[in-house]
Amino acid sequence: MLKSRSMLRSLPSLHAPSKRLRRQHEQTSPTPLVLAIDIEPAPRHDVIGSEAEWSGFLECVKLLAPWREWVREQTGNPLRVSWFLRMDDQIEQTYGSMAWIRETFGDLIEELASEGDDFGIHSHAYRRAGDAWVQDYTDEARIGTMLDAAVAAFTDGMGSRPRAFRFGDHWLSEETLAHLEHLGFEYDLTLEPGRRGGNAPGSDAGSFPDYTRAPREPYRPRRASFLQVGDAEDHRGIWMLPVSMSCYRRPGPPHPRFHPGHRYEQANLALSQAFMQPFIDYLLGSDEKLISIASRTGDLSHPAYEANFRANLAYLLGHPDIARVVVEPPAEAIVRITAADALALP
């Protein structure tokens, strides 16, 4: 990975954390920040099977490279990204293999792994419908078979079983979560609290759960209701790590009540700087147990999204309060959160 001093000198002029923040960082456990990035092509429905459709992944790696040394120097901790590999029927049928990403970018993935980065699976419910691709959430048996194949391909290509998962476009169900747990997944990063449910758009089939009252902090769900926090007698083994969400009009803490006409949006570095940067200010200054930011490499193939990603990444990692967080994978984040909760018990 490129980490030269010349690249570091090319970073924007940013304020380093103050001595006060450094002391605070040393005296208290930092807040875990999961930087989840889905490795997927630029097109959503109209993929053609070209490697050029994945140029956003290469650009994303390039943009992150100089920040690794910067973050280590400013915080004392490495920048450990959580990458989620697209593995589903659309990838297998269009590119020729469920493990296409690993087979095509193997050297780069090994280099990222050497930096301490983590890898999981990201799947969409695409199926072929004539000459088009549609997302079909109604056939959960097909989705389960697809997930079985994805886990097998990941395990064979990466040499270990996947532990973390993100379903595409924030869809999830009781049956699919139970199957994910059966497959050995320990962490799910799909939920987007505050987002309303409804029918799938366009030609897609099925519907989305209503997340308006979904928990905002990490939790283990009840066995019969993945949107309810479990207890000592009734909980699944899998952890839910909700994505950080905010009202798009008023980025910051959640509204005390739902406002009609306001939409909740995920913390996504490719979104508007006017939304993301105040939201970053809030997240880094808040007492949230977890900060979870989700982005997709395909967006970096679009100039406007790439510009937002570049600016918001610099704003986040060059923030004066960056010493208050540690960017780490889901497993380490949960260990940190549960340890802090244990210490807080009377």
Order of helices and strands: HHEHEHHHEEEHEHEEEEEEEEHEHEH
Summarize the amount of helix as a percent range: 25-40%
CATH topology: TIM Barrel
Largest sheet: 8 strands, parallel
- The whole-angstrom Rg is 20 Å
Summarize the structure.
This protein has helices spanning 5-9, 19-27, 55-75, 89-95, 100-104, 106-114, 140-158, 174-182, 273-285, 303-317, 330-344; strands at residues 31-39, 82-86, 118-123, 126-129, 132-135, 164-167, 187-188, 198-199, 207-208, 221-222, 225-229, 239-240, 245-247, 264-266, 291-296, 325-327.
How would you characterize the overall build of this protein?
- This protein is α/β, with parallel strands linked by helices and 346 residues long.
- The chain is 37% helix and 18% strand.
- The protein is built from 11 helices and 16 strands.
- The protein has helices spanning 5-9, 19-27, 55-75, 89-95, 100-104, 106-114, 140-158, 174-182, 273-285, 303-317, 330-344; strands spanning 31-39, 82-86, 118-123, 126-129, 132-135, 164-167, 187-188, 198-199, 207-208, 221-222, 225-229, 239-240, 245-247, 264-266, 291-296, 325-327.
- The strands form 5 sheets. Strands 1, 2, 3, 6, 7, 12, 15 and 16 form an 8-stranded parallel beta sheet that branches. A two-stranded antiparallel ribbon has the order 4-5.
- Strand 1 (31-39), helix 3 (55-75) and strand 2 form a beta-alpha-beta unit.
What's the structural blueprint in terms of helices and strands?
Layout: H1 5-9, H2 19-27, E1 31-39, H3 55-75, E2 82-86, H4 89-95, H5 100-104, H6 106-114, E3 118-123, E4 126-129, E5 132-135, H7 140-158, E6 164-167, H8 174-182, E7 187-188, E8 198-199, E9 207-208, E10 221-222, E11 225-229, E12 239-240, E13 245-247, E14 264-266, H9 273-285, E15 291-296, H10 303-317, E16 325-327, H11 330-344
Parallel strand pairs: 1-2, 1-15, 1-16, 2-3, 3-6, 6-7, 7-12
Antiparallel strand pairs: 4-5, 8-9, 10-11, 13-14
